[in-house]
């Protein structure tokens, strides 16, 4: 679908960012609120949701999944990673109110940049008036951000605020198995646990390992066993 502005080529949705492959753990209430397919008929969708969490917990994944879902229904959405876009003129935000969904990621990156703080404040007002759904993600709660524009701080506190909690090790095992299953791989619990205990436990890192193992398994026509994982990862 055509968008109001042309974003830098580096801004793209990941194909694997879906609600189906996101293991919610303690974040089930948030995922249920974001995923339109899980919502109860007759219950109005929240117009503004703010989510925050540490690196690797899945905030970006959830925002991109929401965009994919809108796009799959022939709607129009846009994903705005502020850590990339603050290096461009803030006029990029013009016309966003014509969309069904706007997702602003890493809004903390705009803190202390007057041009962008003003532009985001104006965008919030236009989206509210147009009844456009807005999802915002950051590394901390609205009150903990270093936003200097008081009116923008106020706007960020308008909606429902969720902290995205990291998965515990048991949940990471289940998340890795789920992602493997969706790739058509058979990964038992022992293999998943071995991978988690031998590597960096950041979920993004774990999924990159899974991608490497998937490719190696396909080439070698081997199942994912602990000896095979040791061989591929040089562990």
UniProtKB/TrEMBL annotation:
Q: Which PANTHER family match?
A: CHROMOSOMAL REPLICATION INITIATOR PROTEIN DNAA, DNAA REGULATORY INACTIVATOR HDA
Q: Which organism is it from?
A: Endozoicomonas euniceicola
The record places domain Hda lid at: 169-233
**Organism domain of life:** Bacteria
- Residue ranges of domain Chromosomal replication initiator protein DnaA ATPAse in the record: 14-162
What's the protein here called?
A: DnaA regulatory inactivator Hda
The family database entries (InterPro entries) matched by this protein are listed as: DnaA_dom, Hda, Hda_lid, P-loop_NTPase
- One Pfam family in the UniProt entry: Bac_DnaA
